[in-house]
Amino acid sequence: MQTILADFIKNTPEGAEAEAILRACVHCGFCTATCPTYQLLGDELDGPRGRIYLIKQVLEGKQPTAKTLSHLDRCLTCRNCETTCPSGVQYGRLADIGRKIVEQRVQRPLGERLLRGALKEVLPRAGLVNPAMKVAQLVRPMLPKALQDKVPPRQDAGLWPQRTHARKMLLLDGCVQPSMAPNINASAARVLDALGVQLIVAAKAGCCGAIRYHLNDQDGGLDDMRRNIDAWWPYVADGVEAIMMTASGCGATVKEYSHLLSHDPAYAEKAETISMLTRDLSEIMPQFEAELGRRLNGKITNRVAFHPPCTLQHGQKIRGKVEGVLRAVGVDVKLCADSHLCCGSAGTYSVLQPELAKQLRDNKLANLAATGAEIIVSANVGCQSHLQSGTDTPVTHWIELIDRALSQQQPQRH
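Above: the chain sequence. Below: its structure as tokens.
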């Protein structure tokens, strides 16, 4: 796609990256076939190819409008189009570049500014989210249904293992997950403890940076990334084996630290190391499949369906590993029809685009129900919460199945 960049972005790192991405696009339109919003709305400008044209026009100097902003806002950034694209177009990076420019040039209505400002100032701060979530959980029965959907019932995380092991890995606690689903990381810690691995949470690490970055506060997002690098670096220097993620959305972002901070001389080298060490939980567990199979084969008898988050299958290009671990312990895990499509959670998308998010959720749940599943498992807390808001079928993280089975097999040691 021939592009003539405007002076404001010409000869900048973002301009060079955007131009390379645009030149890779051959207008084939394969991406529209797997774009969730194009499938729902049928508008070329609500598909990847149309959004690429809009961003190209802005980069060439055309003034964006509220309509431009709306079409870009409706993008889930699920990156399904990247998986489909035969030319390897890095649409997600182009969208980040384009959105930032459009955000600076088109003023949103006051209500939108207030909502987005609250999301990017509150959600990344666990110190604010945790007490707010506790209060919301106390009054949950009195909340409107739309708010109840965002406030899961309080969960008991159980005990965190206290043993030490020679093998040590860092674990990102995250910002929202500790208050919404504290049992996920606790389950991961107990399972890894049983397998001889100690998980360590760095006290000063927090939000991975995705929330601010994808709400177009990219400077704020980069600051979150730098804070995490600083918090993790002493452990990295001591030889920690990996930085493990139980939320695939965080993992997809941390694996991109090396790229996002490549122009920061103070952090570029460290960011590259951090990204290299980062692993999704599903990348760690296959080494234990044989041992888990001996311990747990036949212990999990429920019919299970797995919803692979977009940040896992499209963002990190990880497919089949969760299913492999579950099958190793005897679970006949199913994928639903159109398992490649987004459930509609997409970070803050379900708050900012509730109608589209609900349509996508209901479509996904209908396909999951068709598998006959008694339990739905996923690998990202946002997907779990969003799906659970539309079904009575339990939705949980897949590591919790393993944790429960191990706990039933023998008394848990702490």
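The longest strand covers residues 167-171.
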